[in-house]
Design goal:
The structure is a single chain. The protein is an alpha+beta fold. It folds into 2 domains: 178 residues, 3-Layer(aba) Sandwich (Creatine Amidinohydrolase, Chain A, domain 1), CATH 3.40.350; 239 residues, Alpha-Beta Complex (Creatine Amidinohydrolase), CATH 3.90.230. It contains 11 helices and 19 strands. The strands form 6 sheets. The chain has a 6-stranded mixed beta sheet with strand order 4-3-2-1-5-6. A 3-stranded antiparallel beta sheet has the order 7-10-11. A hairpin with a 4-residue loop joins strand 16 and strand 17. It starts with 29 loop residues before the first helix and ends in a 13-residue tail after the last strand. The N terminus is likely disordered. Bound molecules: manganese (II) ion (MN).
């Protein structure tokens, strides 16, 4: 996604039929990843830390391959089938594989290169000194030696730190398979879950990550402008034309979509994760456009709500004005050290509750506006759109370096109106800094 520096030497295949491998790290420095690994080892100083990346599904081109975000975070490596092992200090690496320098601690294991499979899926990073040079790993070995090395290391240190299997269907996850295999190899080993520590590291973004995310956010805003232009053409356009304009804006800037674009007009604006995007748009209806660019592994996530033809009804306008005011209220009242993802939602709800506006619930009873916000209004953003979602402590005060979305909405199914306004913010000592274009102060600039 980010143009990498040209590979040195000839672009032609070598005597083994192999093309030069793609560069890892996606434009970030080695130091970035070395610091992250050091941070993880500091939290588990007496454990053998094991992480595995994603594998390609054989023979299938249905979904593009994407690396596991946590694996990329610590390695900068997208190669399928990779593993990382970090050893504790004061421990001899030679116990795993004879001939290894005893003081080595950081290992990357990669599948051997294969000219035949690379004919199908392109050149890959392989084990060896070139990968060590490019990634900053002390040693990059063949995946064929992973299990014998781990078996030896666990004999000396039967303590493992890994990502614990999580969620529904956890017994079919790669994390579960790794855990089972390690239990077979080392029946006496103890296991520690690194998920919370990983989340605490990943939610604090480095300056380089913030810079990348600003670019993802600004491409997302460019796509918002393109979407708005289509919607303003008025009656009869289809939601899919808006999606086409969004994807054109992403692809032409070297980005992809971080998630399926949500383009919902009329009553479909009230469907939170609507993604059919195939209905004709009607003059004066509101259109929720919730989109995010994926640029160089990092996500944007921005929502705007527009009026078909550029003119809202009085009712649309007053609902949008309330959502806009709630958004500004949450951001402007931010208190470092106090606010959490959960307090954002509470603040927004009480702001809605104080509004004189009312709408009808599905049972016909009239209710205050806080009844029409069925979702939280914030999440962390980063390598994933809902960044380290399963492991984040939602009640932990946000600290400088966190990047979160603010996305209040109102959904009135009985009136066929939906409005959501979302921006991406970096938490700083001075407050919340918007990563792309801020929302206007006045609702008149919205539609
Ligand atoms: Mn979002």
């Amino acid at each position: 996604m980010i143009p990498v520096t040209a590979n040195a030497g000839s672009p032609h295949a070598d005597e083994k039929g192999l093309l030069p491998p793609p560069h890892p790290l996606d434009g970030f420095t080695q130091q970035e990843f070395i610091m992250r690994r050091a941070g993880l080892r500091q939290r588990f100083p007496a454990d053998v830390i094991i992480l595995q990346g994603n594998v390609e599904s054989p023979g299938s081109n249905v979904l593009p391959y994407r690396q596991n975000s946590t694996f990329f975070y610590y390695t900068g490596v997208d190669t399928p089938g990779a593993s990382m092992v970090l050893l504790p200090g004061g421990f001899s690496a030679a116990t795993g594989l004879r001939g290894l320098q005893p003081d080595l601690q950081e290992f990357l294991f990669l599948p051997d290169r294969n000219a035949v499979t690379e004919t199908w899926t392109g050149p890959k990073l392989g084990p060896g000194s070139l990968t060590e040079e490019l990634t900053g790993f002390q040693k990059c070995l063949s995946s064929n030696s992973l299990w014998s090395a781990v078996t030896g290391w666990l004999k000396q240190c039967p303590r493992v730190a890994l990502l614990a299997p999580f969620g529904a269907g956890s017994n079919v996850t790669p994390e579960f398979q790794l855990l089972s295999r390690l239990r077979d190899i080392a029946p006496v080993a103890s296991f520690q879950d690194i998920s919370a520590a990983v989340a605490n590291q990943r939610i604090i973004k480095s300056p380089a990550e913030v810079e990348r995310m600003e670019r993802a956010a600004s491409i997302t805003m460019a796509a918002q402008h393109a979407a708005r232009a289509v919607i303003h053409k008025g009656d009869g356009r289809n939601e899919c034309e808006v999606e086409a304009a969004v994807m054109q804006a992403f692809y032409s800037r070297g980005a992809a979509a971080a998630f399926a674009p949500i383009i919902g007009s009329g009553e479909r604006a009230t469907v939170l994760h609507y993604d059919q995007n195939n209905q004709s748009m009607v003059q004066g209806n509101s259109v929720v456009v919730d989109i995010g660019a994926l640029l160089g592994h990092y996500c944007g996530d921005i929502t705007r709500t527009y009026a078909v033809g550029g003119q809202w009804s009085t009712r649309h306008r007053e609902i949008a004005a309330l959502v806009l005011a709630a958004h500004h209220h949450v951001v402007n009242s931010f208190k470092l050290g106090e606010d959490t993802v959960e307090t954002f939602a509470e603040k927004c709800k009480s702001f809605y509750r104080e509004s004189p506006l009312r709408s009808k619930k599905s049972d016909g009873t009239e209710a205050t506006m806080d009844n029409f916000l069925p979702h939280g209004i914030s999440h962390h953003l980063g390598l994933d759109v809902h960044d380290v979602h399963s492991s984040v402590n939602w009640t932990q005060p946000l600290t400088p370096g966190c990047v979160v979305t603010i996305e209040p909405g109102l959904y009135l199914p009985m009136e066929g109106i939906g409005v959501r306004l979302e921006n991406d913010y970096l938490i700083t000592e001075q407050g919340m800094r918007c990563l792309a274009e801020p929302l206007p102060q006045s609702v008149d600039e919205l539609p």
